[in-house]
């Protein structure tokens, strides 16, 4: 089991490296960059331009640039010397060991082209709203999906099941952003029950996440929480409706499959109580595939709510991505893509490990 | 006849006691997209305490369906069961799931053909046996687990305490089947239904497992209902045989009699088609044609189209089961001639060996 | 007459159906498949033939006397109403936008499935190092969160100067082939071990013929099932990306950029400019899902219930 885990982790690291190359290549192909600033200003001479590029290390060949960006190559040395840090240990080791503080591996994410803020700070500030929205939605929809899926799976073929299945079918084919529009139109615009968009009421409180906001929060916690709740209702509802539909159908199918499995016939032939048959023999095997869904929920906490965030103007990672994309703010974009990949890889790892825990046949 | 000599005489049915299981006119139909198909038609047989009855037939004869219907393991939506199944005098047809529960496993145990799919892959062997004990014998889980190891020992699995903690995929095919036997025995049932228990096993293991099955049931005085298509298995183990063809029973009787002197043409063809060393070099005997499918049963005797003794009278009405002198029942209007050897057939009938081919 | 013929005379023989005929029968026997096809068919019809019925050219602007800023609602003249500002006929926009959206959907789906199938067959059939490498490549592409990378990719390509439709299609294909590749590879791996392939090899059948005549027909089942879903996904994806402004420029109408343009007028009361393209997106998505599910059930029927 430990061997299995270690192998999957090693694979994950390899994949992260690969995706970092992919992301770097993608950004490389993009237009713009520091040179852009210079292209706009005809007053700079060619020599000044070259000097600037050199200071940024942009005159070196691409693989070297990539290596420096990664943090596996020192910025102040060339060739193979660049692979060894001042402490004498290889550069890809953590900062404490290698003495290197630059590059991704050592936590340097760069600074935004737009306003010069540290990318790390920007992302952290955006991550909290996303975490709140996505986290709340995941918890709600996963529990509902299991409940609904098991309930309909055990009663497959009944009228109740047919009604629910038709409903979930239709809502699972709904594009998220159109549902979002409809929700806004019906509940916010026509009925006026909830605010239209945003995370907080601008007239009441400062922008979420700023220091001013936390002071305001400490001062009037209940109002702040109610305000948050009002703004959360529609986006969470949108996410939950669409996701519950798909996941509950998946659980239902697993339950139906498990019910017709041969070992359930054996359990019936043994005269076991129906509770034991359902719980120990059917659900136990039916929910194993669902474990993969749990793992996949992990990356959702970072980037999955992009569509919803856009519709509802939620100040999260999704909106940050859009702003950065529009402005071609590469340091921010790269960091977001990388962190996103990391979450996907970790999520896959979690599902693989969960699967191995639940299904003894998988442990090799 | 070997089967007759093996089991202890005292435990076998002397027919003075009422039968443990009495199946009368059992008919099973299925709802399909092509309408309602009657797959099993008016099947009757008895099982006495402690005896071994083998139901023999080709695939599609309805033998497995009949056995599964006894404890109502068929899908309730699709299967329609008519007739009577009486276990220890109590009628089983029409009972609800709750009423059937104590009988399943506790009164009647089941062994399935393919243990890898019949066993729960994510539960340990020990637990799968223990849950039967807990369900039927009102013992605690700890005691049940201890007993489970005991049962594993009885079915000759080495290191039973270690094996009990393992999962089905970690055992070999033969061991898995033994574990299934242990599972069936643990409810201490009065009879066990074994559906093709050795078909999925290697030939070398088959004999061991079969032997084990017969021994453990006999030791407890439990009856055994053996479903199989393999006449070799039958010859070793069964006291009595019922031969099924196309949903009907065509012959029942003591194993020795049926195998040595088959009275129905179908059984005759079955027995003579077994390849024997003595007949090496000669052409193999086969039964021409195919088993009819349930939506196309012929009128009259269902074997008539393939029967070498068929006459016109055979195709007009289904022959009833008639008793013979030695207590057998046969479904054929020409039995007397077949047994005498005076039946004029379309083809020359191969000689039936005096010893059951093995 | 032979003995067999005599013995089997009179017994009914069941007509054998090829697997494709069986699947087709099952498809049309259910409710989902035919309805899905019907809805999609209507949409197609409107999109292709529609302009014939409406007398308006796409860019036609009303006479000054009929000037209404918000645009008039659905009426006999403009069955889907008018847009705000320029008062263009929404029906024409939906119809023309539909052409673009459907085109993108199909081409993107065909492209990504084609590449995915190619990769999958190569990886599955040749195995070994090539297979490992290709599968790691799939893993890497899959690791990057798709929506993010598609947005970024679309922006980069359009900044480099691609015309709207092609950009989106290319981005979808480049980031959409992985699922099919895995699927096909799985099928090929399973088939490779099957005895009828071994038998064909033992009989001396040439590898190409094995690949085309025996492996391919059996492997494409899941691929056929995934096709409608791929189309649906591409259409919705395009809609969203165009709505965000990274997709097709507003010069070529698509359902997506109609949504983007119409959004600000929704709150002021013009619901038809947003509503009708939205409705068409929903219906397309629904019908395509129905077809996909019906295909899946007819090619691999559900197991019996206990």
Task: Write a concise synopsis of the structure shown.
The complex is a heterotrimer of chains A (364), B (358) and C (306). With 364 residues, chain A is an all-alpha fold.
Please give a structural write-up.
The complex is a heterotrimer of chains A (364), B (358) and C (306). With 364 residues, chain A is mainly alpha-helical. Chain A contains 16 helices and no strands. Chain A has helices at residues 2-28, 34-40, 46-55, 62-70, 95-98, 119-154, 159-173, 176-190, 211-219, 221-259, 262-269, 274-286, 288-304, 306-311, 317-326, 330-358. In chain A, helix 8 (176-190) crosses helix 10. Chain B is an alpha/beta fold. Chain B folds into two domains: 21-238, 3-Layer(aba) Sandwich (Rossmann fold); 263-340, no CATH class. Chain B is 32% helix and 20% strand. Chain B is built from 14 helices and twelve strands. Chain B has helices at residues 2-6, 63-70, 97-100, 103-106, 115-118, 125-137, 141-154, 160-163, 173-185, 203-220, 231-237, 255-260, 265-273, 335-340; strands spanning 21-32, 35-47, 52-56, 79-87, 90-91, 108-111, 191-195, 223-228, 240-245, 248-254, 322-323, 329-330. In chain B, helix 6 crosses helix 7 (141-154), helix 7 (141-154) packs across helix 9 and helix 9 (173-185) runs parallel beside helix 10 (203-220). The radius of gyration of chain C is 25 Å and the shape is elongated. Chain C has helices at 3-8, 19-29, 32-53, 90-126, 128-143, 146-159, 164-174, 178-192, 195-202, 207-244, 255-266, 272-299. The longest helix of chain C is centred in the C-terminal third of the chain and has 38 residues, at 207-244. With 306 residues, chain C is mainly alpha-helical. Chains A and C meet through helix 1, helix 7, helix 8, helix 10 and helix 13 of A and helix 5, helix 6, helix 10, helix 11 and helix 12 of C.
